[in-house]
Structure formats: structure tokens, C-alpha cells
Amino acid sequence: MSGERVLVTGGSGFIGSALVEELVRRGADVTCVLLPPDPAAHLAEVRQEIRICRADLADLEAVRDAVKAARPEAVFHLAATGVADVQVDPALAVRVNVEGTLNLLNALQGNYRAFVNTGTCHEYGGNEPPFREDQDPRPELPYAITKTAAWHFCNRYHRTAGWPIVTLRPFSVYGPRQAPNAFIPACIHAAQVGRDFDMTLGEQTRDCVYVDDIVEGFILAATVPEAIGGTFNLCTSREVPLYRIAQVIVEQMGHPIAIHRGALPYRGGEIWRLVGDNGRAREILGWAPRVSLGEGLRRTIAAAGAHG
Fold first, then answer.
1. What gap in Å lies between CA 95 and CA 146, rounded to an integer?
2. CATH architecture of 175-207+238-275+291-307
3. pLDDT truncated to tens, each residue of the chain (308 aa)?
4. In what order do the strands lie in the sheet with 114-118?
5. N or C: which end of the chain has fewer CB within 10 A?
6. Cis bond upstream, residue 241 (ω within 30)
7. Homologous superfamily in CATH for domain 5-172+209-234
């Protein structure tokens, strides 16, 4: 993507900042659309090599101004609210995740080579795992419901107007800069400070994908012509119980703490199995996860040590 004009929303977030750094490394001309108060701390290392436009996606005129300034050839849409908040206000989720997506699409009017929309594995909801892209979405929480609505609109614009749109559904992404209250960062932090780790029995399984593999999936989605119009799971197709993930972290850190399985109750509406089928991404994108869980956890622990 060297020399290509690229627009990224949500570029200051966990996945977004890793994507922006990789785009810069590849020589892309990157513009990030961020909320006015966003300090963009995760973009500090590349701040001088990118442009930042301040705009709320809910403000159509501001989005139009940002699009006009960036003139993007490729768009990566990662901005969203409610990613890790099951209690997110549904009205806010609609305003940001649905109306914001529509504002961006309408401001662009299809004038780009590829638009990569970010969905979520939680769109599958009550389906039987492993989740496949040909399953009808059955979202249950506000975040996933609004992501599914945005997906439907993206598909409509692709079908009726021919706009080149791709949707990705990442599964349980982890790595440096993940929110500290997520399971893996919380376990690592507990081990760093010598505090025993309280958790549920941890029988829930997750399909964990290292963030660098996710970034590669995003770039392939924007550069493989056959991807246009498609929806792709970014997952390993392997499920690991949460208690085993915690055990690996503590083992890699030298057993500084004990893990107290069963110290916390399961949540109501617990998701017991979260695993996908990545066959379509392998076949069409040529994508496959390269970083094993053990190696990904080592990298995440090392990064936490460097910034802890």
C-alpha cells in the first residue's frame, strides 16, 4: 500500500493503532479521523508521520470535511462504541455504530478502491459454533446488534450501488495496548504486581487471535480484489478455555501468583463457546494466523513489562 491515501477511523484504539503503525511502515499516506478530545496516546510513535482530522462520526458535515481532506483510496472503519461494555447505552451505540457508519459511507459516496468495515464475532450470537459467515446473525447485546445493522447497510450499498465494501469479524483479539480490564491484560497485571488472580472456573472457551495477525487480515481485505463484497472471520479456529490461558500466562511469568478458579461467579448470559471457522479467509484472502497463543502471550507479556 505504499503511497496510497488511506483513511482510518478508530486509529487510536487497540487494533487501530497497530494497523496505523503497519500502514505507515508500508509507506501509506495515512489520515486518522479521531474525536476532538482523543489524546491519541497509542499513536505517539507515528504522530509525525500521519495526519489527524478531528471529527465526530455522528456529525455528517464534519465527516464530509475529513473525507474531502483525506481523499482516500482505501478506508479502514474501526471506530465504534461498546466494544467491551455490555451495558452500553443502546441509543449511543446506534448513534455511533450505525449512524456514524452511514455518515462515513454517505460522505465517501463509493469514491474509493476498498472500504473495510469492522464487525464482530458477537454478531453470531445464539448460533451453534464454530461460527461461519453463512450463518444468519443472531446478535443479543447492543454492541453486536448495532454492528449487525451496520453490516446490513454495508451489504445493501455494495449490492445496490456497487460500492466496494468488505466486512471483517475479528474474534478474541489480544496483544499490546488491549484495554486493561480485558481478561489477558488483567491476568498479566496481577502477576506483575504479585496479586493472586481471582476468576471464574474458566471453562468458557475463546478463539484468541494475536493483534498482528488481525492487522494482516485488514490489509489483505483492502488489497485482495476477490474480497470485495465478502464477509470474513478472522480467527484461529481453535478454542482454548480461559483457565488454560491464565495458566500459560502465570507459567510464562515464573509462577509469581496463584490462580483462584471459582473465586468469581459466572455472569448471567455467559458466552460458553466462542470459536469460528476461518476457511473463507484462508481461501479468498490467503490469510491464516501465524502467531501461536504461546508466542502471542510472550509478546504481550514483554510489552506489558516494557510499559509497566
1. 9
2. Alpha-Beta Complex (3.90)
3. 899 999 999 999 999 999 999 999 999 999 999 999 999 999 999 999 999 999 999 999 999 999 999 999 999 999 999 998 888 999 999 999 999 999 999 999 999 999 999 999 999 998 999 999 999 999 999 999 999 999 999 999 999 999 999 999 999 999 999 999 999 999 999 999 999 999 999 999 999 999 999 999 999 999 999 999 999 999 999 999 999 999 999 999 999 999 999 999 998 888 999 999 999 999 999 999 999 999 999 999 999 985 55
4. 51-54, 29-34, 5-9, 74-77, 114-118, 165-170, 231-234
5. C
6. no
7. NAD(P)-binding Rossmann-like Domain (3.40.50.720)
- Residue 21 amino acid letter: E
Return d(Cα 163, Cα 109) in angstroms, integer: 8
Residues of the chain with CATH 3.40.50.720: 5-172+209-234
What are the start and end residues of each CATH 3.90.25.10 domain in the chain? 175-207+238-275+291-307
Is the pTM value of this prediction over 0.85? yes
